[in-house]
Amino acid sequence: MQIIDINNSEECGTLFYHKKNAYSTTGVSPHSMKESDFFKWRREITTRFQEIQDSSDIYSLLKTETQNMEYDYFALCVRHPVPFTRPKLTLHTTYPEAWLEHYQAENYYVIDPVLKPQNYQMGFLPWSDALFSGAAEELWKAARDHGLVKGVTQCVIAPNRAQGFLSVSGTNPRGHTMPDDELALRLQHLVEQSLVTMARLEDPAATVLEMKLSKREKEILQWTAEGKTSAEIAIILSISENTVNFHQKNMQKKFNAPNKTQIACYAAAIGLI
Fold first, then answer.
1. Strand locations in 27-172 (E)
2. What are 69-80's pLDDT values in tens digits?
3. b/e map of 126-157 (b: 16 or more CB within 10 Å)?
4. Contact 220, 264 (CB under 8 A)
5. Residues in Cβ contact with 24 at an 8 Å cutoff, skipping those fewer than 6 apart
6. Residue 265 phi, psi (nearest 5)
7. Would the pLDDT of 30 be above 90?
8. Complete DSSP assignment for 236-250
9. Which residues, at least 6 apart from 117, have a Cβ–Cβ distance to it below 8 Å?
10. Residue partners of 218: CB distance under 8 A and separation at least 6
């Protein structure tokens, strides 16, 4: 098991926000998979996640489920929304060490299409020649040279706005026997439960910048995000301008931010306003 903290990457109905084309359990076609089998699996896997008391068991469970889906390796990537230019990114993976070293040495984060918003917004993302076209063609060729000839990625966004990517890949070019819609649902549930469990266990990988703000601080933040000056906010809230500035200075310290604009941006990115 490889566990990597990456802090210089360019990009990497339930509690979760699902991308616009992601599958949901309410939209499953009864003809595309055996519903009773899927929902039985879903109940069982949810229980197993709820019983986990150590983060390492999350990855053991993902390894087992990856093999059950007829893939050889998995990668669970958690990408945080802030800081904007150097977002915190943590990767837990069973990929071969040689491939990980090559990926990092070539700085493939920059061109990896899986980590591009226009792609991961689809939620369920099968790897294909079309996906890895253009600049990413080099990455796709290198992956296949290292034996990774097939793969899919599922992305969800947690309530704290962290992005969770679960990729599974394999060395056998033969396609999986599981229907695509069931595979998508399984991956979606696995990454959701992984993030929920990591948060429950207070795993650093799933912890984003947390701020406890007073009601007044949130009000000032909201108006700051609307572009209001301290003087204007003071009039709107019927308080003095000095009071507005006092709260903004306190929030700058909490966020370790140089100015009020960055405070508002960070707060919006992590869902505080």
1. 73-79, 89-93, 124-126, 150-157, 163-170
2. 999 999 999 887
3. ebeeebbeeebeebbeebeebbbbbbbbbbbb
4. no
5. 13, 18
6. -65, -45
7. no
8. HHTS-HHHHHHHHHH
9. 11
10. 272, 273
Question: Please, which residues bridge with residue 75 across strands?
Answer: 93, 167
Cα(193)–Cα(121) distance, integer angstroms = 19
Please give the residue that has the higher pLDDT: either 163 or 148.
Answer: 148
pLDDT of 11 above 80: no
Strands (E), the chain: 2-6, 17-18, 73-79, 89-93, 124-126, 150-157, 163-170
**Residue 263 dihedral angles phi and psi, to the nearest 5°:** -60, -50
Phi and psi (nearest 5°) for 168? -125, 140
Q: What's the pLDDT band for 29 if we cut at 50, 70, 90? A: very low
CA distances from 260 to 56, 251, 253 (A): 39, 8, 11
Percent of the chain with pLDDT over 90: 51
| DSSP 8-class letter at 171 | S
Contact status, residue 170 vs residue 66, Cβ threshold 8 Å: no
Q: What is the pTM of this model?
A: 0.71
Residue that wins the pLDDT comparison between 197 and 25: 197
Give the count of beta carbons closer than 10 Å to the beta carbon of residue 123: 20
Amino acid at 59: Y
Place of tokens 């071969």: 96
First vs last C-alpha separation in the chain:
37
The secondary structure element, H or E, covering residue 97 is: helix 97-105
Per-residue model confidence (pLDDT) at position 123: 84
Averaged pLDDT of the chain: 83
Whole-number Å distance between alpha carbons of 30 and 179: 12
Strands, E, within 178-252: which ranges?
none
For residue 96, is the peptide bond before it cis, meaning its omega torsion is within 30 degrees of 0?
A: no
